[in-house]
Amino acid sequence: MNRWLKSGAPWVWLTAGAVSLSLIVVLGLLLLIGWKGLGYFWPAPVYQFEIEQNGYQSTIIGELYERKTVPVNQLAEAGIDTSGFEGDKTSRYVIKTGNRDVLGSDFVTVLEPHIISQQPAKGVAVIERLNNGRFYGFPVGLTDDGVEIPLQELEASLEQADIVRDLIRQIEQTDLVDLNRQFEQLNAKARQQGDDEQFIGERQLLEQRFVQIEQQLLTLHQQLNHDSVIVREMTGQEIALPIEQILDIWYPNDLTMAGKLVHWARQLGHFVSDDPREANTEGGVFPAIFGTVFMVLLMSVIVTPLGVLAAVYLHEYAGKNTFTKLIRVAVINLAGVPSIVYGVFGLGFFVYIVGAQIDDLFFADQLPAPTFGTPGILWSALTLAILTLPVVIVSTEEGLARIPNSIRHGSLALGATQAETLWRTVLPMASPAIMTGLILAVARAAGEVAPLMLVGVVKMAPSLPIDGQFPYLHLDRKFMHLGYHIYDVGFQSPNVEAARPLVYATSFLLVTVIVGLNLTAIGIRNHLREKFRSLEQ
């Protein structure tokens, strides 16, 4: 036994067991997040519950959202009549009824002894709306400007509404944005020249154009307001829902397995490609995906040359003295600084000092409204570049240290300069370590939230950092981020219970991006390692 312990084999098995357990935990966590998040888009069956409580009978229609077991004595302490309950425990149902504008809430809580019957609701439809969440009910009619038309034309009306909404969105995001930019440029010229009267004619033309666009939008909205769907909700009341507010209608209890898969894929596609609605509790996360990826790419462009140059100086040029040791200690300590400290530094230095100076030099005519002297995506990228800089420096320096000095000496002996040796020989061989450090930095930056809350990320961004307006790349704009989206929906949402599945879905999306980046790093590193293995030998 002593010989076996001294051989080190127990520690090998212990390490292998710890690694295996960690992998199992990580995979289990990913499966849990994926199941909770992706399951949200599956068309759940809608039930009709007959309820009897305190002598009153009622009907509830909705999805069975959650079922919990609660002690009966706890219910009695809360003042609930439990005289007819059997056993020490009972079940409590959380039913998602939707119809927030009618019922005042998305959920209803019912105790199992109060349920007389539960069965799938025949002919029930789930209606996804722009506002007030989902609506559960039975479509009974369709009207066009108050005139009843066949309900079979509902699908065609929805398709026409989608076309009109796309036209409205295009006008708002192109024509109105361009017109607003022309107004700003005209006002800037008037302020520079100090004479507003000579621009009266141009301003009148722009105002006429604005009236035309406004009239065009009004006409399109009137087209949408013509049609309405008459839906009977669970209380028996018939409500007219404007087609303008309806995004999709499906009958979950009538869908086949193939139909459910198609619906699930379509809903998942909308989640990835649409803009958020209802304070981020509805809709998609495309602006957050775009903002996260764009910010990380911008950060990569900044941190890569800085990290590589610093590592090359420390390993290839700097002498082994006290000053170099202090720099190394500082780099190591920077890696342990809390991320929120970087956010405070970015806000104070980049935004309030550098950004303010840029505004004074180049955008003085727009002051006191700041352009770069306010949090934006550029300052977020710079802040995260400083945060991840130690990772790139350490990784690159380790890669440089693994290259034998004989390769450097051979290159110098053949007449190459030190710079040529670094550029053509050393750096290509160290590229696996450089790429690994970069991708690890990207993976960390993609999940950071705390510093971004101070230097650029927002709950809702009115426009993307890239659009069709000159200069096309707007680094001064604020942006949305997947990590902040998770925080906002999970902790700041006015309807946390309804938005909880979106937290899982967005978390799974963010984890998938980070895992993909790490796998990419491993693939690139292995490819480059095989490519330069012959040179190392």
Question: Can you describe this structure?
Answer:
With 537 residues, the protein is an alpha+beta fold. It has three domains: 112 residues, SH3 type barrels; 107 residues; 251 residues, MetI-like fold, CATH 1.10.3720. The protein has 17 helices and 13 strands. Strands 6, 7, 8, 9, 10 and 11 form a six-stranded antiparallel beta sheet that branches. A hairpin with a 5-residue loop joins strand 9 and strand 10. Helix 9 packs across helix 11. The protein is globular.
Give a quick set of tags describing it.
5-stranded antiparallel β-sheet, MetI-like fold, 59% helix, globular, 3 domains, 537 residues
CATH top level class name of the largest domain: Mainly Alpha
Q: What pattern of helices and strands is seen along the backbone? A: HHEEHEHEEEEEHHEEEHEEHHHHHHHHHH
Question: What does the main sheet amount to?
Answer: 6 strands, antiparallel
CATH superfamily annotation of the largest domain? MetI-like
Secondary structure category: alpha+beta
Which stretches are poorly predicted, pLDDT < 50 over at least 5 residues? none
Helical segment count: 17
Beta content: 15-25%
What is the CATH architecture assignment of the largest domain? Orthogonal Bundle
Q: What portion of residues is helical?
A: 55-70%
C-alpha Rg (nearest Å): 31 Å
Distance between the termini: 41 Å
What name is given to the CATH topology of the largest domain?
MetI-like fold
Total DSSP E strands: 13
Q: What is the 3D form?
A: globular
Report mean pLDDT, rounded to a whole number. 86
Total count of domains: 3
Protein name: Phosphate transport system permease protein PstA
Coiled coil: 169-223
Membrane topology: Multi-pass membrane protein
Domain ABC transmembrane type-1: 289-521
